[in-house]
Design brief:
Helix content: 25-40%
Radius of gyration: 21 Å
Largest sheet: 7 strands, mixed
Strand content: 15-25%
Number of helices: 12
Number of strands: 17
Shape: globular
Strand order of the largest sheet: 4-12-11-10-7-5-6
Distance between the termini: 36 Å
Structural class: alpha/beta
């Protein structure tokens, strides 16, 4: 008999009932150090007092009215995002998947209103853009698309790092946009080098294409800048945001320039829940905390500390790990042993990590993780690696 919860996840045998900072408490009382942060969602850790207060205050006043009316917290958050980014305008969603749907619609509507049939969007192998019809078609991998055809047309997936294929594809007059993650998350923590992101921007400008960045996982301070593309000194036309922006409350957004959003007029898109008072009250507080030079400087300092300790861990376990890659507090342990074995061993050592493609383990701690917890995390990873080496 099928379970009451649709069995689309192979869930770990863990049930967490309480969280504080970088720690989770299991129903049986065991404490786990969380290096997954809800898959890069809990940007300020569990039960951050400022977020709890923002949510509680808003919940006591008003939960939901819909986008038929003005929402003060939504306006506050939109203003903050416009102030701190390239964007001129913002549309709020409930998730990164919804943000992807709008980004695709926005790009295609732009070209439609220009009177040009430029519906093709270039994407890249190893990408992940959510589980919607547009998201799986954009990624194109068999793992996500098998059995869900016919797929939404209009996407062309290119090999990661194949500059010749990209240059040739961009010249196709049917192409209207390029969609890419500055750091692939599900694909195995693969950062796009700054010079390549600059080259993408130049290529888009050369052919008049829109550059769409998916910063759902790598954005909101995760790499040590507010958004990952800032390291390369470029600006997109459209950007997808979610995960960390809500600090654990479901919230996403599409940020865009006036040009890219010019075709999105009244009635062209909507969301009943998107940007509701509860979500935006929390999101506004997240932005207030993270979008400061002092906070981001601390992310970079802690990222350097964690990476240094991880390099030592890799050197101590050459039969288990092969290296470290990533950016900021979005790091990947490249594995020689099966990555799922190491994740599972971590449960026994009281540490939570997230598997990814390319035999990589994702480390996505809260941006507020302490130096003491970083040291403890690496100690527990060391214990997990020793267990895998022993069992292997």
């Amino acid at each position: 008999m099928i379970p009451s919860v649709l069995p689309t996840y192979n869930r770990a045998p863990l049930t967490f009932v309480k969280g504080e900072g970088s720690w989770l408490t299991e129903a049986d009382g065991r404490r786990f150090l969380d290096l997954g942060a809800g898959i890069a969602v809990n940007s300020l850790g569990h039960a951050h007092p400022d977020l709890v207060q923002a949510l509680t205050d808003q919940a006591g006043a008003l939960w939901h009215t819909s986008n038929l009316y003005h929402i003060p917290a939504q306006q506050e958050l939109a203003d903050a995002l416009v102030e701190h980014t390239f964007a001129d305008t913002v549309f709020f969603t409930n998730s990164g998947t919804e943000a992807c749907e709008l980004a695709v619609k926005m790009a295609r509507k732009y070209w439609h209103d220009q009177g040009q049939d430029r519906t093709t969007i270039l994407t890249f192998s190893g990408s992940f853009h959510g589980r919607s019809a547009a998201g799986i078609a954009a990624a194109g991998s068999e793992k996500m698309t098998k059995g869900f055809g016919p797929l939404l047309p209009g996407f062309k997936s290119l090999p990661w790092g194949d500059h010749d294929a990209l240059t040739a594809a961009a010249a196709d007059p049917s192409v209207g946009a390029i969609l890419i993650e500055p750091v692939q998350g599900e694909g195995g923590i693969r950062p796009l080098p700054d010079q390549c992101l600059k080259g993408l921007r130049d290529l888009c400008d050369e052919h008049g294409l829109l550059l769409i960045l998916d910063e759902v996982q790598c954005g909101v301070g995760r790499t040590g800048r507010l958004f990952a593309h800032e390291w390369a000194g470029v600006e997109p036309d459209i950007m997808m945001v979610a995960k960390g922006i809500g600090g654990g409350f479901p919230l996403g957004a599409v940020l865009a320039t006036q040009k890219a959003a010019s075709a999105m007029t009244a009635g062209s898109h909507g969301s009943t829940y998107g940007g509701n008072p509860l979500a935006c009250a929390v999101g506004a507080k997240v932005m207030e905390i993270i979008a400061t030079p002092e906070f981001l400087a601390e992310v970079n300092r802690k990222a350097g500390l964690l990476r240094q300790k991880l390099e030592g861990l890799v050197a101590a376990h050459p039969d288990v790990f092969t290296g470290v890659r990533g950016s900021g507090l979005m790091l990947g342990l490249m594995c020689k042993a099966p990555n799922t074995d190491i994740v599972t061993a971590g449960y026994g050592a009281g540490i939570l990590t997230v598997p990814a493609a390319d035999n990589v383990i994702r480390l996505l701690p809260a941006l507020t993780i302490t130096d003491v917890d970083i040291a403890e995390a690496v100690s527990r990873l060391d214990a997990a690696a020793a267990q895998v080496a022993h069992d292997g």
